[in-house]
Design goal:
The protein is of the alpha/beta class. The chain folds into 2 domains: 3-25 and 163-350, Orthogonal Bundle (Hypothetical protein af1432); 36-160, Response regulator (Rossmann fold, 3-Layer(aba) Sandwich). It contains 19 helices and 7 strands. It has helices spanning 3-10, 31-34, 46-55, 69-79, 94-104, 122-130, 143-162, 165-179, 187-201, 206-218, 228-231, 239-246, 248-256, 266-271, 292-306, 318-331, 336-345, 362-377, 387-394; strands at residues 23-24, 27-28, 38-42, 62-66, 83-87, 113-117, 135-138. The chain has a 5-stranded parallel β-sheet, sandwiched between helices. A two-stranded antiparallel sheet has the order 1-2. Helix 9 (187-201) runs antiparallel to helix 10 (206-218) and helix 9 (187-201) crosses helix 17. The longest helix is centred in the middle third of the chain and has 20 residues, at 143-162. The chain is elongated and about 65 Å long. The N and C termini lie far apart (44 Å). Residues 1-34, 353-360 and 379-396 have low confidence and may be disordered. Bound molecules: fe (ii) ion. Residues 15, 219-220, 248, 272-273 line the site of fe (ii) ion (FE2).
Length: 396
């Protein structure tokens, strides 16, 4: 498969998931990203609770402890919590039943629950996941990975909390699209973040940044209507299959079209596969006819697909992917100015972010973009995501 066809095919990749930056339905709200989360630890053994508390590390979360499931219920109803870490063998009903209970109740069904087991037992893991657990972890916990998972779940919950009920349903559905393909990982989260960074670098207003953030999660929601046999086909698609695949843009627009709060996101959903020269779909728009936010998101989408492995291709390096994006701009497919901005902010995303970077807010992202651009223009390498540097910039 040649470079061109890889980039092409990427465009038919499955999409959406989780949250990163936090935007309310009425605009960007960065504050929530800094809000302390309340984490409930449920384990009969004080020593185990201490271990979990230690594994949470330096994050300044409020930690509540319970020694049984009934104490846990009290804690949830009294304090409200953002995440539950429960021992598989928690006294009284045990983790699985407790989890089922939470997932059945409307008020707690989206509360992330991590079950912690003492040994790697596949049957126990399957039972816990069947019960609705969001994660099944084995003690001793690996602090770095553990913290990253906790932070990812907290971000997701914060995003859900910021949405109205109908939006929450759509975001959950969008996440389910991404979860159909385990190779996608945090595709939407990355997309959302990269698009927002580009929007910030271009000086777009908060309303647009909020749309970009949401677009990162919702742009491919129409794939919910695309059968697995097409979405995950390893070989080339037939003409008829391409037609079905391409319909995800219009289907997505229809799915979200009834929600006024998503009006700014609709052009992203419909037009993220248009091309600058008019050869894209669904409407064959050209140049600036293509909504700017769609042009922004599509660059991040192309790049992220190229740097990820798929059932029919392996991942390219960051440099290789950027070169393809640039060559597509030269070929007339992409907006050159947007690609240039992307090239400016890309180095921010080249290094693996440290775990606590997940606490980034829109404000701190903006500060990082600003810092990074200044550093770049002075010809110095700027590892914005290097932990110490990032702290300096964002004030985290
Ligand atoms: Fe798409």
């Amino acid at each position: 498969m040649g470079i061109e066809s890889i980039a092409d095919r990427h465009e038919f990749e499955p999409g959406p998931t989780r949250s990163w930056l936090l935007a309310g339905s009425g605009g960007v709200r960065s504050k929530a990203a800094h809000t302390r989360a309340r984490i409930l630890l449920v384990d009969a053994c004080p020593k185990n609770r201490r271990t979990m508390r230690t594994a949470l590390g330096e994050f300044e979360h409020d930690v509540i402890e319970a020694s049984s499931t009934s104490e846990a219920v009290t804690a949830i109803s009294l304090h409200g919590v953002d995440l539950v870490l429960i021992s598989l063998l928690a006294p009284e009903v045990g983790a699985n039943e407790f989890c089922r209970m939470l997932k059945r109740a409307h008020a707690t069904q989206l509360l992330p629950v991590f079950v912690v087991a003492n040994s790697d037992d596949i049957e126990a893991e399957v039972s816990a996941m069947d019960a609705g657990a969001d994660e099944f972890l084995i003690a001793p916990l690996r602090p770095k990975a553990f913290r990253a998972r906790v932070q990812a779940s907290l971000r997701h919950k914060a995003m859900i909390d910021s949405l109205n009920d109908s939006e929450a349903v759509l975001f959950s559905l969008a996440q389910s699209v991404e979860e159909r393909d385990p190779t996608l990982g945090a595709h939407c989260e990355r997309l959302s973040l990269m698009s927002c960074a580009m929007g910030i670098a271009m000086g777009l207003p908060p309303r647009d940044i909020s749309a970009l953030q949401r677009g990162g999660y919702l742009h491919d929601i129409g794939k919910i209507a695309i059968p697995d046999s097409v979405l995950f086909k390893a070989g080339p698609l037939t003409e008829e299959e391409w037609t079905i695949m391409k319909s995800h843009t219009e289907r997505g627009e229809r799915i979200c079209g009834h929600m006024r709060s998503l009006a700014d996101v609709l052009p992203i959903i419909r037009h993220h596969h248009e091309r600058w020269d008019g050869s894209g779909y669904p409407d064959g728009l050209r140049g600036e006819q293509i909504p700017l936010l769609a042009r922004i998101l599509q660059i991040a989408d192309v790049y992220d697909a190229l740097t990820s492995s798929r059932c029919y291709k392996s991942a390219l390096s960051s440099d290789e992917a950027l070169e393809i994006v640039c060559s597509e701009a030269r070929k007339g497919w992409r907006d050159k100015e947007v690609v240039e901005v992307f090239g400016d902010v890309l180095p921010m995303f080249r290094t693996q972010p440290p775990a606590d970077l997940s606490r980034i807010s829109l404000q701190s992202l903006a500060a990082s973009v600003e810092y990074f651009r200044k550093s770049s223009s002075q010809g110095r390498p700027a590892h914005v995501f290097e932990e110490s540097r990032f702290r300096l910039v964002s004030g985290l």
